[in-house]
Amino acid sequence: MKKTNKKQICIFGALLVLTSCTFTTGGNNSSSNSISIEVDKSELETIMEKYDNLGYQYDYDGEECTLTMAHWDSSGASIERQVVEAVLSGFKKRYPKINVTLDIIQSYEDTYGNRITAGTAHDVFLTPDGAIPKWAGSNKLENLNPYISSSSLLNLSQVYSSCLTRYQYNPTTGKMGSGNQLALPKDVGPYVMYYNKDWFTNKGVTLPPKDRIMTIDEATEMWQQLTKYDENNNITGYGVAGLPIEGLVWSGGGDFLNSTRDAFPTDEVSLNGLKQAYQYMQDSYCKYKVQPPASFTGTTTASNLFTQQKVATVISGRWEVSTFRSLSFNWDIAYVPAFTTNPTKNMYSGSVGYAINSQTSKKLAAWKLIEYIASKEGQEILATTGFQIPVYEDLALEENLVNSEKEKGPENYEVFVESAKNQGYGLWQYRSNTLWKENGYDLNSEKLYAEVESERISVDEFLQKAKNDVNKYCK
């Protein structure tokens, strides 16, 4: 992205009056500083005119009503509200008889399941792909298949398949990935490698390729060249933060559970992939020193390390763009580096959808809301915020949208689109809960990366501990 002056521009509101405002981001995924998202006051009108000309019809013959809608504060309550209100402004113009009261809720994934169980959920509520395995069997999420089959706004054959299957549930088998469509996607957030172009220039390092996935060996050499030292040879800037273990395991041919996902893997291919990935992850901290240790990061997130220019690259999702567009340095994106066995399996993508409360008395109005958000018009409006790419590949690659994205940044926008095609769901959808991962892999890996060598365990020791605990929590 080209360096620009920071501006104070608010996402367009329901009345299409261009105003100026500053809002602050927070949460786990964004840096905590004021950001600006530039939206022309006529942009919504232009998008809506486009779909009028294409013959789309937005009909509603129900009663005037007010829907309640729940959304999380993952990237900070202010920015999340601004993003959702952008698409609600279009919805209100299409459906003037339907009002929407939006609630932004803290600790959403930890607490909202209690509301679903208690029968106090909103008419329409956010459904993270990481939470739906726990919520799917409650019978509180409306089956959307009958609505979809009669929709004139949706052509789900054009949507990235993983954006749909991660919200499907088979009540007979109790498994995710097929059956009833319990939510429609609001977004897809592919992971990429963000990089500080100025850092590369100052260190005389060649920029990463934009047309292919770097191998782990190539990336390691690059990250080492980017490392900064002070006069006492102490590292003051690292090559990368946020390197995901999932992508290392999958791209190396491994997996975290067996094929039936009820135990630790036993086949040689999966075990070799696991060992290779965790060995590299340990080496990235302790041998190559391309990732910052806990003593360097403290409580700072990987994304904040990048915005503070303490790391040259960071692996993170599309949602960072809204924040990164206000940074003072030049940046761009490349593919997440991977092993060569399955290089396109270099990470999962993130996604959230919206579900209808099966107990609401306003099901038609609720359907119109989630249908609109998942429609091409709704997706194009959301894309203007910089927070996401459309869930439709053909829309994501339309010339006007591509040119707009490149102008605002990143210049290598197509990396997002290609990554979204190949990145599926994460480990949270392997089973109905992630206790096997948290207790089997995450807790045991702390000693794998210990900064004090005498406290560090080997990868073989780690995998044995992981095996025992994974099998324990899969019973």
Kindly describe this structure.
The chain is of the alpha+beta class. The protein folds into two domains: about 55-190 and about 350-425, Periplasmic binding protein-like II (D-Maltodextrin-Binding Protein, domain 2, 3-Layer(aba) Sandwich), CATH 3.40.190; about 190-350 and about 430-475, 3-Layer(aba) Sandwich (D-Maltodextrin-Binding Protein, domain 2), CATH 3.40.190. It contains 20 helices and 15 strands. It has helices at about 45-55, 75-95, 110-120, 130-135, 145-150, 160-165, 195-205, 215-225, 245-250, 270-285, 295, 300-305, 320-325, 365-375, 375-385, 395, 400-410, 415-420, 435-450, 460-475, and strands spanning about 25, 35, 65-70, 100-105, 125-130, 170, 175, 180, 185, 190-195, 230, 235-240, 310-315, 330-335, 350-355. The strands form four sheets. The chain has a five-stranded mixed beta sheet, with helices on one face. It has a five-stranded mixed beta sheet with strand order 11-12-13-10-14. It has a three-stranded antiparallel beta sheet with strand order 7-6-8, with no helix packed on it. The radius of gyration is 23 Å and the shape is globular. The N and C termini lie far apart (about 50 Å).
Describe the secondary structure blueprint for this structure.
Layout: E1 23-24, E2 34-35, H1 43-53, E3 65-72, H2 77-94, E4 98-105, H3 108-118, E5 124-128, H4 132-135, H5 145-149, H6 161-165, E6 168-170, E7 175-176, E8 180-181, E9 184-185, E10 191-196, H7 197-203, H8 216-226, E11 228-229, E12 235-241, H9 245-251, H10 268-286, H11 294-297, H12 302-307, E13 311-317, H13 321-324, E14 331-334, E15 352-356, H14 363-374, H15 376-383, H16 393-396, H17 399-408, H18 414-422, H19 435-448, H20 459-474
Parallel strand pairs: 3-4, 3-5, 12-13
Antiparallel strand pairs: 1-2, 5-15, 6-7, 6-8, 9-15, 10-13, 10-14, 11-12
